[in-house]
Amino acid sequence: MTVDSSTPGVFDCDFETDLCGWTQDSEDDFDWTRHEGSTDTGNTGPPYDHTMGNENGHYMYIETSSPRVAGDRALLYSPTVSTACTMYLHFWYHMYGSAIETLNVYVRTDSSPPAVPVFTRTGEQGNQWL
User: Domain MAM spans what residues (predicted)?
Assistant: First the structure.
């Protein structure tokens, strides 16, 4: 994780070294995986990561094929970020394959789970990073 000390709360994570402080939910149905190269299931996922643009780069993904079933959830939490200034989330996503459901991004401002996503995409979005 790279921290910009000139701006409180700013961090940049490309998952090349580690999870940069992102954590898995211990009570969801399955976990995200830090991965490099193509996904294990054919005709799904990216062939490589977006940042490095080759099979050596890392990204986080979830396997939505079997044994996953509709309604399974995998939650990944960012490190706590200071809200002393306006915050932005910039990320790349790749939703390719026949078993794609929904990607939701939530902003949590207290200890209660947020009810409405600030970003949502459902279904296959093509074999491309968006």
Answer: 11-130
What is each CA distance from 111 to 8, 107, 108, in whole angstroms? 21, 11, 7
The rounded distance, in Å, linking the Cα atoms of 86 and 7 is 11
pTM above 0.90, yes or no: no
Exposed/middle/buried for residue 17 (C-beta within 10 Å: 0-12, 13-18, 19+): exposed
β-strand partners of 58: 36
Bridge-based pairing state of the strands 23-24 and 33-36: unpaired
- Tens of pLDDT, residue by residue over 71-118, are 899 999 988 877 677 778 889 999 999 889 999 999 887 777 777 899
Which of these, 12, 9, 21, lies nearest to 81 by C-alpha position?
9
